[in-house]
Amino acid sequence: TKTHNIDLIALYNRFRPAFEEIFFVVTMRSNDENASVHPQLCKYKNVLCVEYSELRYADLEGLKKVVADLSQRFRNRFAYFFGDDGSQWLTDGMEASAVRRLEQMEQAKRDMETEPFEAVHFKFGVNGGGRVAVETTVNLQEGESEGGRR
Fold first, then answer.
1. pTM
2. pLDDT at residue 148 in the model
3. How far is it, in rounded angstroms, from Cα 32 to Cα 26?
4. How far apart are CA 148 and CA 6, in angstroms?
5. Smallest Cα–Cα separation from 107: which of 130, 82, 88, 90?
6. Which helix (H) or strand (E) holds 53?
7. Contact present, 63 and 27 (Cβ < 8 Å)
8. Per-residue b/e over 29-54, b at no fewer than 16 CB within 10 Å?
9. Among 52, 47, 53, residue whose Cα is nearest residue 73
10. Is there a contact between 37 and 6 (Cβ–Cβ < 8 Å)?
11. pLDDT band at residue 77, thresholds of 50, 70 and 90?
């Protein structure tokens, strides 16, 4: 789930009872003096911080590289929980699935470019004009939700 809520302790306390563990991947721009992500956040063992620039790609091969690199960092960072053989719990098939989903999201962004801002592609939270939705809802269980900011 994507959110711009960086109160990770509150998110952890809210969702942890339903899961064995909660992991966070936080994108940051360390060269931005107005950034709201404090470097101390990256020291939590269940947090992986990634520079925003590391997530950029120009073509399909670049996208595959970003997904592979991020998967390897995820395996390394969270080996304390999943064990040293990360290929068992984060497989190549899962990476391929992530690439397909990101390709679908890019298509949704293109499809929404000519739509009014109020129109929303609900699967990917993209508003018309290619912008990302302002509000999102995180569902923990059917019928139970908690709002988050994008």
1. 0.70
2. 36
3. 15
4. 10
5. 130
6. none
7. no
8. eeeeeeeeeeeebeeeeebbbbeeee
9. 47
10. yes
11. very high
> Are the beta carbons of 98 and 67 closer than 8 angstroms?
yes
Query: Which amino acid, residue 20?
Result: E
Q: Distance (Å, rounded) from C-alpha 47 to C-alpha 26?
A: 7
Question: Using CA atoms, how far apart are residues 98 and 124, in angstroms rounded to an integer?
Answer: 13
User: And the tokens for 42?
Assistant: 């990256």
The helix (H) or strand (E) run that includes residue 99 is: helix 92-112
Stretch 2-9: mean pLDDT, rounded? Answer: 74
Q: How buried is residue 70: exposed, middle or buried, by Cβ count under 10 Å (0-12/13-18/19+)?
A: middle
